[in-house]
Specification:
Belongs to the telombin family. By secondary structure, this protein is mainly beta. The protein is built from five helices and 16 strands. The protein folds into two domains: 130 residues, Nucleic acid-binding proteins (OB fold (Dihydrolipoamide Acetyltransferase, E2P)); 146 residues, Nucleic acid-binding proteins (OB fold (Dihydrolipoamide Acetyltransferase, E2P)), CATH 2.40.50.140. A hairpin with a 5-residue loop joins strand 2 and strand 3.
Length: 325
């Protein structure tokens, strides 16, 4: 990517936007949905932004190219949208992308390098842009609550929804509406995790490596509209899963001890509460942290099944939980 010299752009504060105009805006992400397959063939992303005027604007963005949509990782990121069309939907202003739409995304933390995330190979960025990003960072630090749902596997508790940063170790199609992801983040769940049998599945990944990691690996089932994105992810990539649901599944009915309980991980269908998947680049600060965690992980000394609960031929009760809660 490279910067280009161009005439300064004019940016409209969110409280001055008007229906029927095409505007350039800056804002802090207050809510977002990672790109997902819409009812048509395009990907869609929903982004709600706010600025120093305390006015919110929800943007519905569509593209046939997943990477062309804003590369947002978390609430508090800062975005710059060029050529955003303003319309009215349900008596509220809404932004949609139109011809020539372009976006940049920046880390929202004060003091971090001002580095743009974009799929564009050429874009403009002036000293004034730098000042606008830094001013929004300072404002957001006092007015926007950072997302508190990001946890590690060692902190996962049942019956919760949270975000997980992890590395993909293996994957397989389970059926037409469910897809298996085997992931790890260098930590181990307090309860043993439930497993999907891969015996009859076409599995992609190094099973011998996964077996060596033993209970550091968890199985995640993703459903419905997330399957297409999950299928396209390459083994070894770093991911963030949003609004991941943890459930508790009873183990062997012959024992009543707490050790028989197993922790399930599900990414349900739909996009409520920002549910989705985002591939993270190796250059992301959160990936740097994850890599350090993986390098420092306490790997199992022996290859034993202790602490790992296997389901026989998958688990029908878990696979039937494709709800849209």
């Amino acid at each position: 990517m490279s910067l280009v010299s161009t005439a300064p752009y004019t940016y409209t504060p969110l409280n001055l936007l008007k229906e029927g105009t095409i505007a350039n805006v800056y804002g802090v992400v207050k809510f977002f949905k990672p790109p997902y397959v819409s009812k048509g063939t395009d990907y869609c992303s929903v982004v709600t932004i706010v600025d120093q005027t305390n006015v919110k604007l929800t943007c519905m963005l569509f593209s046939g190219n997943y990477e062309a949509l804003p590369i947002i990782y978390k609430v508090g990121d800062i975005v710059r949208f060029h050529r955003l069309k303003i319309q009215v939907y349900k008596n509220e202003l809404q932004g949609i992308n139109c011809s020539g739409f372009a976006s940049l995304t920046f880390e929202g933390t004060v003091g971090m390098p001002v580095t743009a995330r974009t799929s564009s190979k050429v874009f403009s960025f002036t000293p004034q842009d730098q000042k606008m990003v830094e001013a929004l960072r300072v404002w957001a630090s006092k007015h926007i609550s950072a997302s508190s749902t990001l946890v590690q596997l060692c902190d996962a508790q049942p019956m919760q929804y949270y975000d997980l940063t992890c590395q993909l170790l293996g994957k397989a199609q389970v059926d037409s509406t469910a897809f298996l992801l085997k992931v790890w983040d260098g930590t181990q769940t307090v309860l043993p995790s439930w497993r999907v049998s891969t015996q009859d599945l076409t599995f992609e990944g190094d099973l011998s490596h996964i077996e060596r990691l033993q209970s550091l690996v968890v199985d995640i089932l993703v459903y419905d509209n997330h399957v297409q994105v999950a299928r396209s992810i390459e083994v070894g990539c770093f991911l963030r899963l949003y609004s991941l649901h943890t459930k508790l599944q009873p183990g062997n009915s012959e024992t009543s001890s707490s050790e028989s309980l197993r922790l399930e991980f599900h990414l349900h269908g739909g996009t409520s509460y920002g549910r989705g998947i985002r591939v993270l680049p190796d250059t992301s600060p959160c990936v740097d942290q994850l890599k350090k965690a993986l390098e420092g992980a306490n790997l199992p000394v022996t290859e034993t099944s202790t602490g790992i609960c296997q389901s026989e031929n998958g688990d029908s009760s878990a696979l039937s939980s494709k709800d849209n809660l």
